[in-house]
Design a protein that fits this description.
single chain, mainly alpha, Four Helix Bundle (Hemerythrin (Met), subunit A), 5 helices
Amino acid sequence: MYSTECLIFEHDNIVRMLNVIRHACCGILEGAEINDADFRNMIDFVRNYADKHHHGKEEKILFPEMVSKLGPVAETLITHGMLVEHDLGRSHILGLETALNEYKENKTTEHKLDILTEAMAYAHLLQIHIEKENSVVFTFAERQLGEDVFSEIDKRCKDFEKAAEEAGTQKHYLDMLSRLEAKYTV
């Protein structure tokens, strides 16, 4: 199925960014300074590639079809599972941004700890979340939704991808990811 293959490909890229985040945090623990610009690029990637672009397809296309066609099990899995975790991830990224802003104003150990805490909480949450989506949510959707439903999901995902490609979204964020991976030797 095109749509789930696309989402899994994006998960692979998001995991690459989670590794960058981990390496940047480990560097800080080993004495490196906090690179504000790099962390803000990580936030930009998360908000615009992982959330707006990737979660956009899940939340606007795949998940609504699952909830409307697969009943209470999908309702629980999506509404009380995946969407809650998406919101929790957004909360950690907002916390990271707040901690960076506070650290910029007052370089205390406490603010540095907040940066590490929020960054690693996000990375940990998303790693587990991605594993659940890849192994449970997507396989459930592929087994239970009919071919006609998936055909429409695939078409809508292709249209979403095409519009994003025309805007340069994928290229911009994957280039950013490659630069950060090279810098943090991931």
